[in-house]
Amino acid sequence: MSHDLFEAAKAAMSKAYAPYSKFRVGAALRTEDGRVFAGANVEIASYPEGWCAETTALGHYIMGGGGKIVEIAVLAERMAKCSPCGGCRQRLAEFCRPETKLYLCDNAGVAETVTMGEMLPYGFRGDILK
Ligand code: THU
């Protein structure tokens, strides 16, 4: 992973709105043509209404024109190798291939690299809906 993706996730993490859990998360993704989109988690006083950093990044990615996602970095302030929740795995998988790399980071950089296929085997496939 080039350092800019990690830096984008880190910068996003610093913008997290997490006053309830104090668990700040940043995510950044890169498209095939090199664009980078990042996001932070957003918490709401009505707890189930909050959403994850990965989901914020996906919103920016769609508004920035979408495309094929080739790599993703996730970083949490208080946890090394923060792994995307089940819902975010399904959301990310919508725009990735099984071989898309996902970098689970710590404060220094990549701590572990996995693929989306490993993260979400047997995820729901929407092909039949198209
Ligand atoms: N969270 C993320 O933003 N991404 C993850 O991959 C795991 C969890 C957020 C949601 C919530 O704001 C906080 O972390 C604690 O669950």
From TrEMBL:
One of its GO terms (biological process) is pyrimidine-containing compound metabolic process. This is Cytidine deaminase. InterPro entries: APOBEC/CMP_deaminase_Zn-bd, CMP_dCMP_dom, Cyt/Deoxycyt_deaminase, Cyt_deam_tetra, Cytidine_deaminase-like. Residues 1-127 form the CMP/dCMP-type deaminase domain. The lineage of its organism: Bacteria, Pseudomonadati, Pseudomonadota, Alphaproteobacteria, Hyphomicrobiales. Substrate binds at N41, V42, E43, I44, A45, S46, Y47. The active site is at E54 (proton donor). The keyword ATP-binding does not apply. It catalyses: cytidine + H2O + H(+) = uridine + NH4(+); 2'-deoxycytidine + H2O + H(+) = 2'-deoxyuridine + NH4(+). Belongs to the cytidine and deoxycytidylate deaminase family. It comes from Mesorhizobium kowhaii.
